[in-house]
Amino acid sequence: MLILVYVDDIMVATNEEEGKKILFDDLDTAYGIKDQGLLTQYLGIEVAQTDDSVTINQSKYAHEILETFGYSQAHAVGNPMETKVKLVPLGESEDADTSFEYRKAVGMLMYLATGTRPDLAFAVEQLSRFVAKPSAKHVGTLKRILRYLAGTVGYGITYERANEVPSSVALEGYCDSDWANDPESRKSTTGFVFTLAGGAIS
Known about the structure:
Helices cover 31% and strands 21% of the residues. It is of the alpha+beta class and 202 residues long. The chain folds into 2 domains: 2-55, no CATH class; 58-161, no CATH class.
């Protein structure tokens, strides 16, 4: 049995129905905490469960982001960032582009990316470097992410049950890097992802 507690939100994962009943009977007696049934939402993350999988997403929050910045009806694009875009800081004598709430948008997208949208992580991380003084190019790149989000609001992460014995649920890791591709420092950029049961966990 796994028990996750965040302030007054409690999530229990178990395949022992009797053990869960005893736990919630004790919690009810001591604190008035009752079993709310199958989990559908936890800390803003929506949860959809079937016999074979669990899918998590933040579609409501994604819609909130799009509405906040006026992109609910935006024309969608197929990826969050152009592959060959080069982002560099503004020069000291250049003025920042203040026509868009850049810092707020990056912050909201970062929360989404770290929750259930790893497909946004790289692009948002790149743009987070320029929140102090964004250029028109930075703003344009950020708006592309919003257009990508407009077409992918329902995206999330699915974890699948293993149907084999022994279990095929295994921790897997992948990484990649470019070669001195940073236009400023000429340093390499590395990315990685770890998956469990077919879905990203880190």
